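[Meeting: bench + compute handoff]

Bench side (C.D.) handed over the final construct sequence. Compute side (W.E.) agreed to return the predicted structure before the next meeting so the bench team could plan truncations. Sequence as handed over:
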Amino acid sequence: MRERMKRYVLMGLVVGVCGIPAMSSAQSYRQQGIYPVFDGWEDLPDGSKLIYFGYMNRHATEITIPVGADNGFEQAPADRMQPTNFLPGRHEHVFTVRVPKNFTGKLIWDLKTGVGLQKAIASLDQLYILEVEDEPGEKVVPPEIKAADATVKISEALHLAPQVKAEAVKREAVIEGSGARQSGLAVIWNMHRGPGKVTFTAEPGARPVRPAAPAGGRARPEAPPVPGVFSAACALPAAPGCGAVAARFSEPGDYILRAVARQGREQRDVFVHVKVAP
């Protein structure tokens, strides 16, 4: 399992739409395909660095690319916990790679699809450093999430009840020009890796996410659900049952599920390894 806190903004120039690296032209980006993205890097207290990666899937459906020649890092090891199951749309900060404090080179993630080979090239360029956001008002304390690895039979539902800790804020912080920060809590599940499909259903304590209404206005239209993603809203402070789901698997094998606790712009995630027996 791994936890991560996101409480940073990208400083400097972001090249291309949604942070797509400059090597992906605007024309190729509009084509159906999957584009790896270098989302920036973070300094850790011990001097090591945390490099963030995400992706854009321009297909309308989930695409699977196994780790190997078509999905790997050019520097060994090729497997650095990148996803093999790519959901439609843009997904930021999906996984991280930790490098030592004396790291000076580049880290290159290669993905090959119908549009050819695409690269996310990560380096400790100052333009891509992730810095703590300086905001007026009271900040949302990042939520915490933990979940245990599990084993289940293919004929059974796996009941997953993450431990989520999050508190309500007394007032919302505001970023100039962006409006009020939304501090509601949601837990989002999806399959990060696996040989089959995963279906998530809500357990007691979880409820569907609804868009929050801006101050003095009407609720925003609800975005269409992303196939393969389950989102549940939780009351604050987080209570037992927050983010609880039942997962069913279509095939036996080894799966990795990703659960994200998101509160406003703050989030932490955890990877849950599941062994599905015949």
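W.E. noted at the follow-up: Residues 4-131 form a domain with the Immunoglobulin-like fold (CATH 2.60.40). C.D. will use this when planning the next construct.
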